[in-house]
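Office hours follow-up: a student asked to see two folded examples consecutively, so here they are.
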Amino acid sequence: MAGLQGKRILLGVSGSIAAYKAAEWTRELVKEEALVQVILTEAAERFVPALTFAALAGTSVHRDMFADDPEGMMAHINLSREADALLIAPATAQTIARLAAGMADNLLSAVVLAARIPVLICPAMNSAMFNHPATQDNIRRLRQFGYRVLQPGCGGLACGEVGDGRLPDWDEAREALLSLFAPTDLRGIKVLITAGPTREAIDPARYLSNRSSGKMGFALARTAMRRGASVTLVAGPVALADPPGMEVLRVESAKEMAECVFARSAQCRVIVKAAAVADFAVEAAAEHKIKKTGTGLQLDLVKNIDILAELGSRKGPRQILVGFAAESREHLQEGTRKLQEKNLDLIVINDILGAHSGFDVDTNQVTLLDQNGSQEIPLLSKEDTADRIWDAVCALLSSAGEKRSG
């Protein structure tokens, strides 16, 4: 099951100007085929009417703990029983204080008190209110209860001030929500991932590159983060936003990527080399733009360093090294050769000529190959493919642990 599809999300909205963003989040959840139930506080309805959320979620909105209809009489108990996760956005200073005190004086706070499901809280308020010692103490208490509390964004606020207190972006909230459902088998593991192409300059206007979009590497970074890893992502020039919550280093050339990777590789337990690094660079890039003339143009190329092979030669006894092989023919033979020659623990082989598994698509169909054999993975989204790769990595980590203890 991909992403949030089929997940039953209970969305609690409290009284903040950021409530309009919660309406947008409802639409995003429904777009991903999540099943959304909305709880509005009385103050929240002053900002966004219940009808808006009902129309977006496609279900009735819950507001009153003492509803007249028989089905609503036990809503404060039943709503959380029927959900997979409880998301509170925006969470005002008042709501945070109410939850920290364990109060149950409105439907939302009563539902939280009765909930036995993961709770994700997204604060939004004036920066002075957020940084007040009372609010900070309340947030610490909520975390002690086991609730996940996101750090609010920093920027312009509705009051005209600039500071902490903005409702986090949906991308960050989505990642946090997905992490509630993910296994924690990479917790405490430092992971280094490379993604995207490199560009090798010809002159100030032109470069050599390839068709890699970076989507597979970014999917690996996001899914590793959800599973608890500490992630560093080294990305070539791609049109993708930085995933939240991790160190992202942007590079251009193979030389820059190599320097970044080698400076950090020794500290990482798992290295996944998903980038499509250029094999060659122009020996001497022109200082000025090369003018078009009647004669042809000859470029003298030199080989770039093979980052993956160098990592294989440097690999420590506890490290797991994963490579990628984008092939157009003899896939398994080429993958086997690279697995052995580059001292890899796992190689991911995909067909770049496939209509749904080549460059710049959102799906992938790969073969995983390690020293014990190969495994065919069916056509999946790149995030689901990434999770299958992490399953294989975790099996290798577990096996390595058993060998050390033996």
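And the second, which I mentioned at the end of office hours:
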Amino acid sequence: MLTKQQIQELEKQQYRMVGNHSAVKVCGWTKKMLRSEGACYKFKFYGIRSHQCMQMTSSMFCANRCTFCWRGEKAPVAKVWKGEVDDPDTIIELSQKRHMSLLQGFGGNDKTKDFLFQEAKQVRHVALSLTGEPIAYPKINELLEKFHKAKISTFLVTNAQYPEQIAKIKNVTQFYISVDAPNKIKLKEIDRPLFPDFYERLLKSLDIMKEATYRTCIRLTIIKDQNDLDLQGYKTLIMRGSPDFIEVKGYMHVGASRKFLERENMPMHEEIDTFTQSLIETLGDEYTVTSEHKPSRVLCLMHKRMQGKQYIDFPKFFEIVNKENDNKKDEKSNENNETPIANSLDYSNEKMTPNC
């Protein structure tokens, strides 16, 4: 899927290719936590340990070319999958090897805390949000299941252009939809989508999100003087997806985004806070601010139904999803019986949000 020149460019920027279409890169917050210099907002918001987090993607291509994306056009633009489809087991094994190869230098660094480096050798969380569109990978559901079987939690981020792939997801630790603008006109301007029915795809994805049994989040990346408007438009989209959480994050003027946006388009944290307060007033009493991470210029909003459930109970999560998968396998092996084994866990009528 990638040319030799594209791969070389990615390698220079500390990406590591995994098979034919996946990649890993160490997040800056992983490095900071190894040096005890702070942790990612996901640690503060949900309990994700940054030094044990692996940042990756299962698909390098994307159907959008967002103006605010700092990663730039490093990978193919495509609507449909092209080329080989790697096996999930291979992706998981090679991703962890590539990830650890990038961390080796920290083992001999005086600033690195040794006990944190030893813990980092065991990946406990994967953020499927590196670049491209990870959910486009045809075997995304199988990949998630295998991560969970290995007791590795998952955050999956999508730009909502593949609702048919979202519908396949059975379980994920937390599922994200990026809502990059409050209305169709601005979304086309900011995301520069390939699909002509891009907005309808977003709406369908939000409908699927609303019915999900796993934790959900809508991420807003606020670009000053670009999409920090039409609060009613945001309200309509947010209510349609009814996420458990909303992350309101400021655009950062770095990387390839500087081709399309100015430094003045990067809001300060105080401006993100002001926008968030206005958004809360528009949403009514459904959401409240639960936390903020000033270095990342991001605030976390939580739905009132999630009271006491912000932090993830990882052992409980793995117990639920892995037992459910085992039960499904038992059902399949006994599909000819008159009374197949029933699923002993039923959370179809409530969000699967274990209380930490």
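Two things to take away from it. The first strand starts at residue 16 and ends at 18. The chain has one domain: 11-306+315-321.
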